[in-house]
């Protein structure tokens, strides 16, 4: 494997409703900020890859319009994933491994405010047996939360703690959407949205964008004195048939951990793409992160830009390693219902 | 339970999603001017290309088009097609002409109707001008322009309209 490093990351302040700002107007500021911070331009980028979901905009090929935020003259090499931009980062990583690029710009964007996110997300399900039932994203998450509680994998106290901690950690994240602190009484005041999840167990509807630049070892030091190395990256998906999955565990995450040899690594920090409160204690236990500071940015519970939040977990881990002189960080991104598809990224500061 | 003897070989699952669509802040500035009967394009601060209607960025340079460029409602036909097939719900009776309209001073064209002329006389490069609806019907839409109609000016060689990099 060629060594590849993250050299920069920028995030738009997460908004409840970006209003008149369209997607291009959300993307431009973060890409410009990233270029300005590193003192580079699009000409220094070999490959550009974005992650977004056309259904969020309600327009076919909406992702092509997103490219208007990028300098495309002279012509550029680019690609897109209809997924979280964490997978755009994965594609960029492959492009560098294949020797087709030394540097890559990744960006993700999403506005959840214009449409009905519950309806939109249900369209990502199996189109024959599940989508026609229009299961909403909260009910699907609740299904897994119920399984985890019933099988004593997690406790409701842990779910409450996830919510309270996320709010407290939002102070570390200048772009967080939700920053007000809450206590147990506030939490219990909220009615169930879909039992056992109440409103505060769920992420806020969010608009925003993020961008990242990665580079091969040869190029990384041209961009920054402090690259953070992608020591390992792996992603695996489970069946689209919910009934055939064991929602109380994740064999695929286990396989990813083995593949990346994470067992003996002492992580200093982790950022997990846990959109619902029950997912945090579940993944912390699966990934052996019980004693590792996790989601210091507040995570998706304080701002959850669709198609960005996974890339943000990687970006926040990168920032954490860089700012705190930590050595090892673990980032997680997810896609699909009930943590169906997961990516793990092991980041490491140069020893 | 169904008592049908034959197995069902298909099912319908209609999809209907509703969105609150926003034009973007640049297009909003443009549409506010259109409501007043003005066509104001937006220029790229780097390559100086002028976009109408503007979408918020120069896709060549990837920067915001923050220069307002007032334009006239005159231009030429960059390309056109004659529509013979009726479209359900469309009140216009075929045959009619859709054309890419290149306004003077703009570097991109937009789609609109051509009327007040025999179809066989329409040609690329023909000079045209907007025919506006009565002022009291103006709204935030290019539909304020009913159509474009030919004017008595010499044709333009559209090849000369190609964007020249400065």
Question: Describe it for me?
Answer:
The complex is a heterodimer of chains A (351) and B (166). Chain A is 34% helix and 21% strand. Chain A contains 12 helices and 12 strands. In chain A, the strands form 2 sheets. In chain A, strands 1, 2, 3, 4, 7, 8, 9, 10, 11 and 12 form a 10-stranded mixed sheet that branches. In chain A, strands 5-6 form a two-stranded antiparallel ribbon. In chain A, strand 5 and strand 6 (197-198) form a beta hairpin. In chain A, helix 4 crosses helix 12 (309-324). Chain A starts with a strand and ends with a strand. The relative contact order of chain A is 0.19. The mean pLDDT of chain A is 96. By secondary structure, chain B is mainly β. Chain B folds into 2 domains: 19-71, no CATH class; 73-161, no CATH class. Chain B has 1 helix and 10 strands, in the order αββββββββββ. In chain B, a hairpin with a 4-residue loop joins strand 3 and strand 4. Chain A binds chain B through residues 19-22, 24-25, 28, 31-32, 42, 55, 57-58, 65, 67-73, 113-116, 119-120, 123, 127, 131-132, and chain B through 11, 13, 15, 17-28, 47, 55-64.
């Amino acid at each position: 494997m060629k060594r590849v490093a993250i050299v920069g990351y920028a995030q738009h302040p997460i908004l409840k409703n970006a209003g008149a700002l369209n997607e291009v107007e959300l993307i431009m500021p973060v890409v410009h900020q990233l270029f300005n911070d590193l003192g580079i331009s699009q000409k220094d980028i070999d490959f550009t890859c974005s992650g977004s979901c056309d259904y969020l905009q309600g327009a076919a090929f909406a992702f092509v319009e997103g490219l208007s935020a990028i300098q495309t003259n002279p012509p550029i090499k680019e690609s897109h994933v209809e997924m979280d931009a964490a997978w755009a980062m994965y594609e960029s990583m492959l492009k560098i491994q294949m020797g087709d690029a030394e540097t890559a710009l990744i960006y993700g964007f999403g506005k959840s405010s214009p449409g009905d996110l519950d309806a939109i997300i249900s369209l990502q399900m199996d189109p024959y047996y599940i989508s026609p039932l229009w299961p909403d994203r909260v009910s699907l998450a609740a299904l897994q939360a119920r399984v985890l509680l019933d099988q004593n994998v997690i406790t409701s106290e842990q779910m409450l703690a996830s919510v309270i901690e996320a709010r407290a950690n939002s102070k570390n994240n200048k772009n967080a959407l939700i920053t007000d602190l809450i206590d147990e009484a506030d939490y219990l005041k909220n009615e169930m949205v879909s039992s056992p999840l109440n409103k505060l167990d769920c992420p806020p509807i969010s608009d925003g964008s993020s961008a990242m630049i990665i580079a091969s070892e040869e190029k990384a030091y041209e961009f920054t004195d402090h690259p953070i190395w992608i020591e390992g990256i792996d992603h695996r998906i489970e069946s689209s048939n919910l009934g055939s999955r064991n929602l109380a565990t994740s064999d695929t995450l286990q396989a990813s951990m083995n593949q990346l040899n994470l067992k003996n690594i002492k992580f200093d920090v982790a950022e997990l793409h846990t959109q619902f409160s029950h997912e945090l204690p579940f993944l912390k236990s699966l990934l052996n992160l019980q004693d590792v500071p996790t989601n210091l940015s507040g995570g998706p519970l304080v701002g959850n830009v669709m198609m960005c939040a996974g890339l943000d977990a990687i970006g926040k881990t990168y920032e954490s390693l860089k700012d705190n002189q930590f050595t090892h960080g673990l980032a997680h991104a997810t896609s699909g219902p009930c943590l169906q598809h997961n990516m793990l990224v092991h980041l490491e500061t140069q020893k | 339970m169904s008592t049908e003897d034959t197995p069902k070989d298909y099912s319908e699952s209609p999809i209907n999603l509703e969105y609150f669509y926003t034009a973007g802040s640049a297009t909003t500035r443009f549409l506010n001017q259109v409501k007043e009967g003005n066509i104001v394009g937006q220029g790229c601060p780097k390559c100086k290309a002028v976009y109408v209607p503007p979408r918020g960025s120069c896709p060549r340079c990837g920067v915001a088009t923050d220069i307002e460029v007032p334009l006239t409602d005159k231009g030429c036909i960059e390309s056109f097609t004659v529509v013979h097939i009726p479209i359900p719900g469309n009140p216009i009776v075929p045959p009619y002409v859709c054309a890419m309209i290149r306004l003077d001073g703009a570097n991109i064209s937009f789609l609109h109707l051509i009327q007040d002329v025999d179809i066989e006389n329409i040609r690329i490069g023909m000079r045209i001008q907007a025919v506006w609806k009565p002022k009291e019907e103006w709204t935030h839409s290019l539909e304020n322009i009913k159509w474009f109609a030919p004017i008595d000016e010499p044709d333009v060689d559209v090849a000369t309209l190609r964007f020249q990099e400065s």
